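It is worth pausing here to work through a concrete case rather than discussing structure prediction in the abstract. The textbook approach is simple: state the sequence, then state the predicted structure, then interpret. We follow exactly that order.
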Amino acid sequence: MNVPAFIDLAEENQIGELRQYLKEKGADISAENSEHGFLDDLRQVIGGLDSLIKDPPVESEVECVINSLISLLLVVPADQGESLVVAFCEKIAKLPSNTHGQTKIRVLNSFFHGMNERSRLRYFVLCGLYKISTQDGLLDYVSTDLNQIKVWMDEWELGVQKSQNLLRTLHDALIESKQSELATRVMIELLSTYTVENAASAWEDAHKCIVTSLKDQSMFLMDHLLTLKPVKFLEGEPIYKLLTIFVTGKLNDYVNFYQQNSAFISSLGLSHEDCMHKMRVLTFMHIAEINSEVSYETIEQAMQIDEEQLETFIIDVVRTKVMHIKLDQMNRRVVISTTAHRTFSKPQWQQLGEKMEKWQRNLQLVRNNLQTLMTQQT
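Step two, the predicted structure:
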C-alpha cells in the first residue's frame, strides 16, 4: 500500500524536512539529523509531535506530516520497530479528538494496511485504533470482525498474553460503542484462551463476561458460559449464583436473590428493571418448553404482572424471536408453536434426534407415495 508522504524525498532528506517543520511549530528538536542514525532520527521526530498536539494545524496539514512519518516507519525492520511504533501510536492518540478524531483513525488505518500482513507490529497499531475509536466514537471505521482478528492473531504469532490483551481492548471498545452482542462474543473468545492452570487469573475478565451477558437484552442462551474454565473458578461467589439463575432459574429466584443482594446488583452496573424484564422472558421460555398452551392467568402470576401489562409483555417476547406464539383472546390463552431452549444438553439432543427421525420417516413416506403414483400413471 502506498502511503501519501509530506514531501517526496530520500529518507535522510525527508527526516530533515520533518525536523525543520516541527521545529518551526515549536518542537524542542534540532534541525540537524542525528549523528546516531536513522532510528534515533525517528525517535526524535516522534517526540516532536508534541508540538502538533499542543497547537495542531489544520487537519490536512497534520495528516500530510503524519503520513510522511509513517512512510519512514514502514521501512524500519520489524525487529527494530516496536518501541517506535508504540511511541508513535501514543502520540497520535493525544491529538485533540474534537478537531482531529477522524484524522487519527485514517492515519493509523493507513499505517496498519501499509505494513506487511504478517508483521507483529500490526498488533500495536490495531490496539491503538481500538483505544482511539473508544475515545472518539469512531469504531465503525475499524475492523471488528472476530473471525478476521483471529486470523491476524495466528499470522502475527502473538502468543497468549498479547492475544488476550488485543481481545480485551476490542471488548472495551465494543462496550463503549454499545455493541454488546459482539462484545459478548469477543469476551467469550478471550475466556477460551485460558487454561486450567491460569484460569484463576482471569477473575476480572470472567466478571466482565458475565455482566456483559446479563446486560445484553438480546442474549437469552447463556448455559455455555458455565463451561468456561475462568467462570467455573467463580463458583461459590454471588456473581456465579446470579449467572446460574439466568441460565436455569425463574423470576422468583431472581427476586429472592435481589432482595438479599440489591447493593451487589447495583455494584455490577446492572439495572434491576432490565434484569426483571430479561428474567420474565427467560421464565416464559421455561414455561413454553413444557407447555404448548398457557393461560393468561398463569403468565400473569409467573411474570408478576397484571392483565394490562400482559399484551405489552407478549409483544416484547415476540420481538426477541426466541419463540413463535399467538394470542387466543377468546379463550384467554397463548398458543406456542416453537421456542428456544434455555439450556441445550443431552435431553435436548435426544429430542432433536427424535424430531429428525420423524422428519426422515415422513419424507420417506412422501417419496413412497410419489413413486406409487408415478407407477400407476405409467
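Step three, interpretation. The mean pLDDT is 88. The CA atoms of residues 54 and 261 lie 48 Å apart.
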